[in-house]
From TrEMBL, chains A, B:
Cofactor: FAD
Domain Acetyl-CoA dehydrogenase-like C-terminal: 481-593
Residue span(s) of domain Acyl-CoA dehydrogenase/oxidase N-terminal: 40-156
Origin species: Hydrocarboniphaga effusa AP103
Alphabetical list of Pfam families matching this protein: Acyl-CoA_dh_1 (PF00441), Acyl-CoA_dh_C (PF12806), Acyl-CoA_dh_M (PF02770), Acyl-CoA_dh_N (PF02771)
SUPFAM superfamilies: Acyl-CoA dehydrogenase C-terminal domain-like, Acyl-CoA dehydrogenase NM domain-like
Name of the protein: Acyl-CoA dehydrogenase
Family: Belongs to the acyl-CoA dehydrogenase family.
Keyword Ligase: no
Domain Acyl-CoA dehydrogenase/oxidase C-terminal positions: 295-462
Keyword annotations from UniProtKB, A to Z: FAD, Flavoprotein, Oxidoreductase
Keyword Hydrolase: no
Residue span(s) of domain Acyl-CoA oxidase/dehydrogenase middle: 162-273
InterPro entries listed in its UniProt record: Acyl-CoA_dh-like_C_dom, Acyl-CoA_Oxase/DH_mid-dom, Acyl-CoA_Oxase/DH_mid-dom_sf, AcylCo_DH-like_C, AcylCo_DH/oxidase_C, AcylCoA_DH/ox_N, AcylCoA_DH/ox_N_sf, AcylCoA_DH/oxidase_NM_dom_sf
Length: 603, 603
């Protein structure tokens, strides 16, 4: 079963042969670690994926969370899997020793998560949210809050959520209306409605720590406009006293579940804060503590969001990857039709994979999902560098490059991992369209990823509207340097020289279009086709990483099936995918104006 | 509600302003018809769509057919809707007067079906299959069979199915194993398993007429190999005597339901023929009558399949279209965010449609779904011409062109209508991912269409491997002529001249790549990247039809919102879609060899 979840060989190649993760062990932050300990930890993730997460993945889909008006019921296997995960120490794997963590490098932890997400995206989401929540609190909250909430989260006793959107404010957080009213004791009472809260209510943990964006009213009772008025609050489902004892239910109630297309294992709901249902009216309001300073809520939340965005990309890559492995397995075992050259209709049929068009679909999937996985682990490695490189310049550069790449890390796997899932259905034919097989669930689960944590369109605006110009384009220059270095390494290697030339041309073309866009004073015009820019940028970045992988494969000087498969996927990407670039860049310079100029009434 | 199903304005434009369907009334086959009668009939389809089909569309999804081991239960609304449809005379709308039909032109009937499919694809599929089944029998079966089965189908009392695939033979019909053993009385007894039978078992009609592909054993009991050995049989669920009275259950039993990702309103199952469950063993075998001549089964079945392929394309266009209208409605009413130029965070948010990127997604949807609808109605009009043009050359030419276009009519809407459904989800954000809204069901329903009635890959082989060379390329020449005529009309019109030039260049490029492919002697090499050829061909054909629509809009000399919307969608297609062509053609000449040369073990 493990071989249908994720390729450990690919993970090992990406982490150790390509990203040289073992070099991290030389840094003081990771003292005492080495490749062997990390391999052993990856074994644990893989084993949990196979034994604890995969077995109830289909049940999560067919038996989604149910709300009877009083309580939410969730499959018991979800809690069992997460307890096994916590018991193995993995909830705190990436956390510092002070809270009982292992201090695992992010790239190792992410790789481990890829196994779990591929096995069961719905169940593992609770852990991802809890860890990101705890990491935010470690970075920004007072010692009291950390002691009260992070410790039990590290032990897997409390889970965490992020509460940003509201029914009227999805992507536009400036418009949130949740109020946080200061109390005499320094705490706050929150009133408002929060939408799309994953893990928002359930009974599989002792408590739930909601991180809630809200606004502190001005003296006249009005709410400050814009994002500057947003603060962040830790609001537990059940109150916790200073000794860490659980007290009464807080004034946070579930108003209804969302019934999703997929990802059904993760309960997702509308929460009402301060409705007063569990207490006398005068005592209404969800009690919360402010995290950090007032008005800094969105900045802090970006700590969690940036982590979540990498997690979304990684999850999308993992779901695409397991779909690919299922399709490959099916294509190798299912027989259908004959070769063109075979004239005898009584000859035995051949395996699907013997048809060139089926191999095309498998190569596309491989190029998408292994490329997406490489992208996400590259980002995780950058994040490790941003925290652990000895020199400040190195740390700052890693941070800048990661910042630039984050919208691509979030969106490219979400789009192309999903495309891989679509192809996996296609390879299965009619069987792929049925719930008796697994691949249609992968598609439905993965369809969430281009939406949450900032839609594709939001990521496009982030990239073109903010990231490429950040720090006077320093991130873009860093990326240029890394791409040039790969091209230099690839150029002398005969089979890669043409790809190196193609990447060089593509990157220069992208830079030139970027410059022309940056020269436009009219922001509306500059950003009108930002989505095409994100598409183009993403494809160039992944082409670079495929070339870089091929260089690493050649450096290892092996010529086994794995190495040949890597080269074939690289060839496929340069032969079939990178040529799409011109269609995207063509609408950016000059800006194709049809979407801009079309009146809403004409549609 | 009607305005969210399909645009009657667009249907009227396509049928009458663009395709000049009213001219059909001048032909003897349609004597007594005119635009007014056709408009009145379209009103009936539209009304049925709104009142009878749409209301239970969601229920079909949430309450799928259930098999308790004895009988299949289906939502009662399905039968009610189909009875209303039959009572209105629509089951026989396109059939000749001899069986009580209205003799409606195919393009009008198809347009009417588009409303029903957009409203409820699952329920209307029973009618589509019944009509296609009856049409095959009218064309190829003996008068006795027609009298016994077609008449009650025309009245909506019997329904029809097509039984081609078997568990071991999906796309490869040469490998079917169902046996048809001749009996003394001239009838046959069938033994075998048929997979993916839509409408295969239910109790909403008095009887079900299965059209079954099977092989007549040789004297030694062996089955003839290849497609030449396939014959076609009419096998009723319940036997019917010569007076049309229903007799005992035939030996056809349901072996299990398939639980699909979508399209759940249409029951789909595995049927066992001749298992002997309903009779003593010596009397086993499903009794059937041969349709036409032995060995001609696949040729006859193509009558139904070609009709079904247009229906699939049309259904995909319709599902894409309703998704587009839902997204447009949502984008006009849901507010979120502000313009770039708006500095005041307290200003009211704007409608989603005011964001350029949302209009891009809406334009893409419009270009896909209205383009797909145009393609399918164009094909239906060709089919009418093939039967009703006064001159034999005209009829033959129409038939050749329709034959050439059929793989595109089947596959382009299936692919891009689905892409439109995906964008409709994206515009809805998180809401679009929930079953509380409609667009995710549209996506799931439509995902069937690239699979059934010949997958995308099969259509690609049909186009490149058969259709372009058919009749020495006569179809391709006819298409060339029609494209050239559109270019000639568009060229003098300033805003369309550049599109005319782009289409001219694209078509010549496609012809040149086609010629280079045809010159390859190695069929394996020639067809390796057939999927890319189908992509490219489809996009050029739809670009042509968009330009042709724009010419028709300009000819009408109106400049209302509808006309401007048509021009904007045409501009979008030429600006954003046609440039994708080079990426597809680039892998065809010379043939990009990665899929061909990749060994299955490397994947």
């Amino acid at each position: 079963m493990s071989h249908l979840i994720l390729s450990r060989r690919d993970i090992d190649f990406l982490l150790f042969d390509w990203l040289r993760a073992d070099a991290l062990a030389e840094r003081p932050q990771f003292a005492g670690h080495d490749r062997d300990t990390w391999s052993a930890i990856l074994d644990v993730y893989e084993k949990l994926a196979v034994e604890r997460f995969a077995p109830h993945n289909k049940k999560n889909d067919s038996h989604e969370p149910h709300f009877d008006g009083e309580r939410v019921s969730i499959n018991v296997e979800v809690g069992e899997a997460l307890r096994a995960f916590s018991t193995a120490g993995l909830m705190a794997a990436g956390m510092p020793a002070e809270v009982g963590g292992l201090g695992l490098p992010g790239c190792i932890e992410r790789a481990g998560f890829a196994f779990l997400t591929a096995a069961n995206a719905g169940s593992v989401a609770y852990a991802m949210l809890t860890i990101a929540n705890a990491n935010l609190l470690i970075a920004h909250a007072s010692p009291g809050i950390v002691a009260r909430y992070v410790q039990p989260m590290a032990e897997g006793r409390y889970f965490g959520t992020m509460c940003l959107s509201e029914p009227q404010a999805g992507s536009s957080l400036a418009d949130i209306r949740t109020r946080a009213v200061p109390q005499q004791d320094g705490r706050y009472r929150l009133f408002g409605n929060k939408m799309w809260i994953s893990g928002g209510d359930h009974d599989i943990s002792e408590n739930i720590v909601h991180l809630v964006l809200a606004k502190i009213p001005r003296e006249d009772g009005s709410l400050p406009a814009g994002v500057q008025g947003i603060s962040l609050f830790a609001v537990p489902r059940r109150l916790v006293d200073h000794e860490g004892r659980l007290g009464e239910r807080n004034d946070v109630v579930l108003a209804g579940l969302n019934h999703k297309m997929g990802y059904r294992g993760t309960v997702n709901c509308l929460l009402n804060f301060g409705e007063g249902r569990h207490r006398p009216e005068a005592d209404a309001g969800a009690i919360g503590e402010i995290v950090g300073e007032p008005g800094q809520g969105l900045a802090y939340m970006f700590h969690m969001m940036n982590e979540a965005r990498i997690a979304v990309g990684l999850g999308a890559a993992a779901l695409g990857y397991t779909g690919y492995l299922h399709a490959l397995d099916y294509a190798r075992t299912r027989t259908q039709g004959r070769r063109r050259s075979e004239r005898d209709p009584a000859s035995p049929p051949i395996a699907l994979v013997e048809h060139a068009d089926v191999r095309r679909m498998l190569l596309a999937q491989k190029a998408y999902v292994s490329g997406a996985l490489a992208l996400c682990l590259y980002a995780a490695r950058l994040s490790d560098d941003a925290h652990s490189l000895p020199d400040e310049t190195g740390r700052r550069d890693s941070h800048l490059l990661l910042d630039l790449l984050t919208p691509i890390v979030k969106s490219w796997p979400s789009q192309w991992g999903l495309a891989a899932n679509d192809l996996a259905i296609q390879i299965h034919g009619g069987y792929g369209y049925t719930r008796e097989y697994n691949v249609e669930q992968h598609y439905r689960d993965n369809r969430l990823n281009p939406i949450h944590e900032g839609t594709f369109g939001i990521q496009a605006l982030d990239l073109l509207g903010r990231k490429i110009g950040q720090a006077k384009g320093a991130g873009l220059e860093l990326l240029s340097g890394r791409i040039a270095a790969t091209i230099e390494r690839a150029r002398p290697q005969a089979p890669l020289a043409r790809h190196a030339a193609a990447l060089d041309a593509a990157w220069h073309r992208l830079r030139s279009v970027t410059a022309s866009l940056q020269s436009l004073a009219d922001a509306e015009l500059r950003l009108a086709n930002a989505a095409a820019y994100l598409e183009a940028f993403g494809h160039v970045v992944v082409a670079w990483l495929w070339l870089d992988q091929a260089v690493a494969v050649n450096a290892a000087n092996t010529d086994d099936d794995f190495a040949r498969g890597k080269r074939a996927a690289c060839d496929y990407f340069f032969g079939w995918e990178l040529p799409k670039l011109e269609a995207w860049l063509g609408v950016l310079h000059p800006v194709e104006r049809t979407p801009l100029d079309t009146d809403a009434r004409w549609l």
